[in-house]
Design brief:
Layout lengths: L1 H16 L2 H21 L4 H31 L4 H26 L4 H9 L1 H67 L5 H17 L6 E2 H19 L4 E7 L6 E2 L5 H9 L10 E8 L3 E9 L17 H12 L4 E7 L3 E9 L2
Parallel strand pairs: 2-4
Antiparallel strand pairs: 1-3, 4-5, 5-7, 6-7
Helix pairs in contact: 2-3, 3-4, 3-6, 4-6, 6-7, 6-10, 7-8
């Protein structure tokens, strides 16, 4: 109940902060009371209160003229000389107004009148400094707002790109596995039920868990094993598929389906193009805060397979690097060796 009340209070304060008229009014009132209480100990409270009220009224005139007219129409248009001249002119206009109002108010205080007239230059300087401070405040707040908007836009763009990239990856796995299942059912193979079970596990993983930014590395490894088992069932005994896991998988998290495009590439452009025996070797070395992934596959001896082949049904190496840049900026190393008879990929990821 207490947490709910605090949450409601924060929401109400946030909504109030979005009303500039109320926010500015509260600011000026607090400032007025602080200045009054600071001086009221030596003089009459009401006398000090009205003095500060007049002073702040004049300051507010020049501040709002600066914020809502001079800055938008001159400073943001890079008309610096005109802006500076108009700011000085505005100060020269409102300063005599301030002096005049206080002069009439001090009709019972000739000493204060004399001091007021003698310090007109000081009043001008103070008013100009107040206006200049409002300019600096406006520049800083606008800069901060632009930074927040830029960050929000970058985050939105990043999430959109990640969703797009994952939407490109996932359907291909499903179609590939369904094709495998279809081929085995035509042969009335006893391996078909096993494929259905593994496909069910893979679908559950993709549909319910891959929508998160990070998943447990253990689940990603299990997905890789299921994928390789399905390929082993389809490829038969003529190919060598080997997966070696080193290290302790214990709670590490990773972006989902990060390794699958490389697996797809190995089978699509490697084993599937062989007329005889081929291989896919995968190694995954796991450390508490770092993983080392390596995959190598044989390539067909016959010429004609283009280099830089697209990976994973058209996703391409460029998009894989883009996804790594988005999720693991400056936290990965990707090395690809395209040799005449072997295609080798090394990926190192820092998980922190």
């Amino acid at each position: 109940m207490e947490q709910l009340s605090n949450g409601n209070l924060r929401d109400k304060l946030y909504q109030l902060s979005k009303k500039p008229l109320l926010t500015h009014g509260v600011f000026w009132f607090i400032l007025l009371m602080l200045l009054t209480l600071n001086e009221a100990s030596m003089q009459n409270f009401w006398f000090v209160f009205t003095n500060e009220l007049i002073t702040l009224f004049v300051y507010a005139l020049v501040i709002y003229l600066n914020l809502y007219y001079l800055i938008p129409n001159y400073l943001t248009q890079k008309r610096f000389f005109t802006y500076s001249a108009l700011l000085v002119l505005a100060t020269m206009i409102v300063t005599p107004l301030l002096v005049l109002l206080l002069y009439f108010k001090f009709y019972r205080h000739p000493t204060l009148r004399t001091e007021l007239l003698a310090n007109q230059n000081w009043y001008f300087l103070t008013t100009f400094v107040v206006a200049a401070i409002s300019t600096i405040f406006k520049i800083i707040t606008d800069w901060g707002r632009q930074l927040r908007e830029k960050q929000a836009l970058e985050n939105q763009t990043m999430q959109s790109e990640l969703r797009f990239l994952k939407s490109q990856i996932n359907p291909h796995f499903l179609f590939n596995t369904l094709n495998n299942l279809y081929a085995l059912t035509l042969k009335k193979s006893d391996k078909a039920p096993e494929i259905v079970i593994k496909l069910s596990e893979m679908m559950r993983y993709m549909l319910y868990e891959c929508n998160e930014k990070k998943v447990l590395l253990e689940k990603e490894v299990n997905y890789i094993r299921n994928y390789l088992d399905l390929e082993a069932l389809r490829q038969g005994k003529e190919v060598e598929i080997r997966f070696e896991l080193e290290g302790n998988v214990s709670g590490q998290q990773i972006a989902p389906l990060m390794f699958i495009p490389f697996l797809e590439n190995s089978f699509k452009h490697g084993l599937n193009n062989h007329l005889n025996r081929g291989f896919v070797h995968i190694g995954l070395a796991v450390e508490p805060e770092k993983i080392h992934f390596q995959i190598s596959n044989s390539k067909p001896a016959a010429p004609g397979l283009p280099r830089n082949s697209k990976i994973s049904g058209g996703i391409g190496l460029v998009n894989i690097r883009r996804r790594l840049d988005l999720i693991y900026p400056e936290q990965y190393r990707l090395e690809i060796k395209d040799e005449p008879d072997v295609y080798n990929v090394i990926l190192e990821l820092n998980l922190v």
